[in-house]
Each structure stands twice: as structure tokens, then as C-alpha cells.
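User: My advisor asked me to double-check a structure prediction for Phosphoglucosamine mutase before group meeting. I don't want to rely on an old file, so could you generate it fresh from this sequence?
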Amino acid sequence: MSRKYFGTDGVRGRVGEAPITPDFVMRLGYAAGKVLAQGKAANGRPTVLIGKDTRISGYMLEAALEAGFTAAGVDVLLTGPLPTPGVAYLTRALRLSAGVVLSASHNPFYDNGIKFFSAQGDKLPDAVELAIEAEIDAPMTYVPSEALGRARRIEDAAGRYIEFCKSTFPTRLDLRGMKIVVDCAHGASYHIAPHVFHELGAEVIAIGNQPNGLNINDGYGATDPDNLILAVRANHADIGLAFDGDADRLQVVDATGRLYNGDELLYALVLDRLANGEHVPGAVGTLMTNMAVELALKRRGIEFVRAKVGDRYVLEELAARGWLLGGEGSGHLLCLDKHSTGDGIISALQVLTAIRRGGQPLAELIADVRLFPQTLINVRVEKGFDWQSHAGLKAARAEVEQELDGKGRVLIRPSGTEPVVRVMVEAEQPELAQRCAERLATVMKS
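Assistant: Sure, here is a fresh prediction for Phosphoglucosamine mutase from the sequence you gave:
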């Protein structure tokens, strides 16, 4: 069944426009509460954890969500601003029924969203999301007054999560002697990430750590790393770490100002595990993962599998294969032996582990990977255009793939939001990628 409200990562949209309105969010909380209550233990009522990022709309939506849950007879624990993976961790650690995060991740402040975690700290199963959707449009009936849920705040949520993050860094290592710039995107990690790296011994210069409710992701963070690059150079830092608004993705800058994306960082994590004597049967990327990383992994005997774009699908593929490492170029990295979900801070600690254990700068650790140039062309098409059955495009694609001869690849995929088909070609030479992409785009336009 298709979802009416849930996307690949919860419910998201512009605040004040359906579905991100107080009345809908209250009904969403009530519906989720009813579904959770159906499976509650005989010896107690279900309890959910609600966290949020630093958007000003979080106050309004938090109150609405709390009202919905308590009306369904569900108890609520409130954390205040906390990274999305922090909510996942506390949900699991406190043996709660579910966790909920109010965040639109890397989007501007005027957007917001609601994402759920199961009791195990991972994404809700599809069946549960569908059950919640089935309840949303039903009338709200409320439980009797004596059965209403209660709400209270967890005062030490940030401290608990800081200790958990630190526990994923090897006890025999520290960060003494390292100067690190930490960019918090004026988001949920502003009061957490700097402490994690400082308490492990690093000298920390924090930027993007003054949220005002309106400046989340604005000029700072993983989606806008220019200020991080400037700060690393200005402070003569060893490394820079950028997180997005809810701190589930990571970008890294080295002392020279070079930016590393998630594809390169995933490769660094695999190499570190191999160098440490660990067995790495395979890694999962996405359709957008650079082919150079795939080829480099295969040269080392590591199987590589591509999932659909989205960390949800990377996680599903890892779970199906029993593997531990995966990620996206955007900086969503999954280390399932450290956490049940993608976590920017923990991913950064794993990169720093690789640097410390390897005794080399990041550039030297991944020196055998040279990302292939990519050319992306967006071709506007008529709504409903069947590009997959386009005979001319099929023939042109076959010719391009023959010319690439296994040293490049073609990816054609439709946009999910507009009448556009995206044509992407990777090749070792940028001129070849450009020429092949333009050939495919021209055929499609004709």
C-alpha cells in the first residue's frame, strides 16, 4: 500500500501548510499513540520520547504532539533539542515504546517534520506506519481522564547522549594534540558535539553553535561547508567536522581545506576496519555513490551493493545482508556496530579513529581513490513521459556504456517532485562524462 502522509523519512513539509500544522500533528500523535497502545505490555502504559532540533516551530509542534499522545493514554518524555540519533539511542536505552523527532534535517527553518523510531532505535516498519496512517483520519475519541498520559522532561538527555557518543571511540585512543573545528549548523548538536570532542582531548573551535530558531542550516553545516573551510584555514586546525541541523550527516575538511564527502568517508571506514583485523564482507552505497569507490572496494575484495537513494534503503540493505557499513555521498554514514541509525557525531569519531590508528592524514588514508567526474543534466519532459520505453534513448545508452567500457557508468532516473528526468554520467575523464551526458540528454529532448 502507498503512504498518504509518510515519506521515506517521516512526515515533512512547510510549517503552517498541510500536513505540518498543529491540528494534524496532534492527530498524528493520537494515531501513533493508539497504535502503540494496542501492543502495550499488560503491566504498564506505553511511553514515547520526543526530541527536536532548534527550529522555532518546534515549540508549537512539540506541544501538539504531546497533546495527541497523552490523549491516547501514552506517557511522554521530552528531551528538548537533541540530535535525531540521540533520540534513537535514548529510546533504546530507556526501553521505551517509540521515539519521535521534530526536525526537517538539512532544510531551512520554515520547514519541519516528524520522524519516528521503533523501540529498537531504528526506523518504524512499513506496517506500523500504515497502521498509523489508517488511524489519522479517524475521529479522535480520547481515553477517560484517569487513563490520560503524563509528560515530563528528561533533564540529563544531552549528557547521556554525550557519554554514549564517547563510548564508541576506542578507549586506548584520545584526541590530544588535535585542533578540531566543529560546525553545528546552528542545529541540534550545538550543545553536544563540541563537548564530545573536547572531552576526548581535542582543542575545539565551535562555529554554527548559536541557534536562534531561525538560522538552522543557514550558511553553516554539512550542506554549506564554506564557513567550515575558512575556519579550518584561519585557525590552522587539523580537521573540520560539519553536521546538519539534526546531526545525522557529516562532512569533513582537512587541514588544507579539502572537502571529503560521504563516499570517501565510507571508504576510509572500511579501510580502517580491515587494517584493524576486522572482517568486512561488504558495504552498501546508493545509486549515486561514486564508481571510483566501488572499484576501489572491489580491488580489496570487498563486495559493494547499491541501494535506492536514502539512508532508509541503505539501512534495509545492510540489515538484509548482515553487514555493518554503508552510507551516502551526502554524509549519511551507518556503522551498525556502533549505533542503530546514521549518526554524524559517531561517524566523525570513526573517521578520527581511522586517522589516529592509521597515523596518517585522511588524504593519505584514501590516496588510492580518485573520484570520477560526474556530469548531471536535468531534462524537462512532459508529465507521464515513459523514458524507459524510449527506443532512441535505449540505443544511445547502449552506445555510451560500450564507450565507457566498464570505467564509468550511466544513471537515468526521474525526479520525484517535478517533470524532470536526471541524466548522470561518470567517467575517468571529465570530457568523456560531459560528452556522453549531453548525447543522452539530446536524444531524450528530441
